[in-house]
Amino acid sequence: MKEWVDLMSFERLFAPLKIRSAMLRNRIVSTGHNTRIASENVANAALAAYHAARARGGAGLIVCEAATVHETGRHLSIAGDDAIPGFRLVAAAVHGHGGTVFGQLFHPGREMSIASDGTSPLTYAASAVPNDRFHIMPRAMPELMVREFVERYANGARRYKAAGMDGVEVLSSQGYGIGQFLNPRTNLREDSYGGGFENRMRFLVEIAVAVRDAVGDFPVGIRLSGDELNPYGMPLSEVVEICRALDERDCFDYYNITAGSSATLGGATHIVPSMAIKNAYLAPYAAAVRGVVRKPVLVTGRINQPQIAEQVLAAGQADLVGMTRAMIADPEMPNKARAGAIDDIRACIACNQACIGHMHAGYPISCIQHPETGRELRYGTKPRAGKPRRVLVAGGGPAGLKAAAVAAERGHAVTLYERERRLGGQILLAQRLPGRAEFGGIVTNLEHEARRAGARIVCATDATPELVHAEQPDAVILATGARPRVPAILGAEDAHVVTAWQVLREEANVGGSVVIADWRCDWIGLGIAEMLAREGRRVRLCVNGYMAGQNIQSYVRDTWLGVLHGLGVEIIPMARLAGVDSETAYFEHAASDVPFEVSGVETLVLSLGHDATCELEAALTDYRGQVIVAGDCASPRTAEEAVLEGLQAGLSV
Questions:
Q1: Mean pLDDT of 356-373
Q2: What CATH number belongs to 382-484+612-652?
Q3: Class of domain 492-608
Q4: What is the pLDDT of residues 172-192, one digit of tens each?
Q5: Is 176 among the residues known to form the active site?
Q6: What is the pLDDT of residue 283?
Q7: CB neighbourhood size of 493 (10 A)
């Protein structure tokens, strides 16, 4: 019990730490992450507002996202003096809330998929060694270019200092540019920058010296993967020796330890690990580095709660903790932890949907639980209602709960009705899948927010038209969700056909040989396949798309595909369901329309999307009050759209 009490006191987490000229107010770090908030690769007011929210929330250190030191890198840029004003906005915004902010120096090397104009990029790396993930063959850097890059890193650091940043971090992690020089599998050079250990280190050491000469008594850190976790990557033993050598040379003021590599699909999943991976799983890597260096060590990787962070610090595994997604989900997390308001923290569930998912799609990052993130200039403040109104919310899923929380926070009198005995809607089903229990945190967090804001919640009561007309609210927010889509299927009367919902609710007697017809190409098909395969059934997942999980974030999907491969699940892509009989499922190839059969089927499981539950909307067509529709009852999509539209509904009443 004493150990638990000590962990909850957060005395280590909120201890200040001095790194050269920078004094950090605590050990919580928002590590560098690509936000896609900047415009035209230039830091702007929106990016400043994003980081200001985390500084206001109490973060000890904010590392602004990777900025390329050379124009060949397709990212936010620190390659010219025109970058200084934008970063000056970021620095001023963070300083305005008592925070500390570092800039990150970066070049991807070969790890690029596309150039800024949509063509295949000309990339530069230590050697002409291709990567598996992007299928790019880079050009080996001429020695003169290597020396030019050293100068570019120094100039980038000088610009950060001119912009008012408090320090810089050199990004050498995840198999990016510098890491390609360190790794003997990707550095095949025969000049002074390749070959033995000292030569492979030369590029990084020269960068460290040049950056130090450029910025003087200014914190300079380094980010490294403790293990690149792929067949062609550096293992922990090699990284520890690199850190030992860097520390002996006094090159850096701290070590930021992450894991994985952009070079392979499996290694890349560790760049932003999903909920399938345990919390704080990289702490042992940081501990190994901490054992050979004198300077502070920072660790990241699924540290989503202050209790977990305190435990890592208490175990002596690290000196600082990266809690990036924790503060994407809840920018106020540090302040809440310091105040002891643990129950008020909106914990990240590592779904990856709106953070890295948005980034990969080319849009500003956000959070499915907290859509205000990334939209600070639009939703950063919620104005109080000029005239409080009576608001009725129909439906206690993500959309209804968010709408109730926001409307009540603004001062309205809110009553939410949920027809089931439990809140959550489809989330209650999603959390039943293997490895998805954490997804239920959305409901826990949103319910707590709604109740804390003062919303009245009534379960096991259907918001019927009669109830609405009896209560006569000023505004009705419809968040009545959706139901499984079960179209007419040729031959279904002769077969055993069930829905994914029935499987999850344990309402179906599933046979030993199962075919899943997956139109959605999302987590439902993948999850049902894993669940049934773990029960010992033969599973064939037929997806109406290019691949299983096509519509979910790649790191989540790729991790899951690896699991299904290990379980022996057969995946059949481009399969459009056409019919079924007692032992055969009939499909058409989605591109050619050519029919094919899948035989030996005992049970056909349908994951064919949803139909909106919109009967209440139709019944309220002539209602005199305001009627707003949010979430799946408007159009069945995902929890992200439901929560965002709940926010918008709560702001609209």
A1: 97
A2: 3.40.50.720
A3: alpha beta
A4: 999 999 999 999 999 999 999
A5: yes
A6: 98
A7: 9
